[in-house]
Design brief:
Blueprint: E1 4-5, E2 13-22, E3 41-53, E4 56-67, E5 70-72, E6 76-80, E7 83-93, E8 98-109, E9 112-114, E10 117-118, E11 123-137, E12 140-153, E13 161-168
Antiparallel strand pairs: 1-2, 2-3, 3-4, 4-7, 5-6, 6-9, 7-8, 8-11, 9-10, 11-12, 12-13
């Protein structure tokens, strides 16, 4: 949903609202590093695209993740406070189909509890990212991202993060 969309000019403003639901997929083994989370998560998000002129844009997004409590073996209830993510990027539109961007992604909060007792685990990371993407056809986009954590607490600090995404618009 786009409650603000001032058009396609070089100084246009677009604000979008979206929501994501994440299912408890993957294998979850409480007390160990697992691929899955073992819980449902709802994540509403607000995004902003602001044209700055001469092919430059500011892209920003803020979201909050609400994780549902999960019941684990041994009558344990695992809960987590909401976690927040902020993203801000300066994007240059090289052509109608291709762009590059550089910016910041930060994740905060998400204190964890077992049977209402704090575990001391929380989320805090600050990451710098560089993206490049292009539409190889009118409906297929490929995107690459590299990044590095400049700060991390409550988890692993990642020296190098890399991602390749293939998107099909239908």
């Amino acid at each position: 949903m786009y409650p603000i969309n001032t058009g396609a000019g070089e100084f246009a403003t677009t604000v979008g609202l979206s929501a994501f639901v994440t299912m408890p997929t993957g294998h979850h083994d409480f007390g160990r590093i697992s691929i899955g989370s073992g819980a449902w998560t709802a994540t509403p998000q607000v995004g902003l695209i602001q044209g700055l002129g001469h092919g430059f844009f500011f892209d920003g997004a803020a979201d909050v993740a609400f994780r549902r409590d999960s019941e684990e073996a041994g009558n344990l209830t695992v809960s987590q406070d909401p976690s927040f993510q902020l993203q801000a990027y300066l994007r240059y539109q090289v052509s109608q189909a291709t762009s590059v961007s550089f910016g910041y992604s930060g994740t905060f909060g998400g204190d964890s509890f077992v049977n209402d007792r704090a575990t001391g685990l929380q989320t805090r990371s600050d990451q710098l990212r560089l993206f490049a993407n292009t539409f190889v056809t009118p409906t297929v986009q490929i995107q690459g991202m590299i990044g590095t954590d400049i700060h991390a607490e409550g988890g692993f600090k990642q020296d190098l993060v890399a991602q390749i995404r293939l998107l099909t618009v239908f």
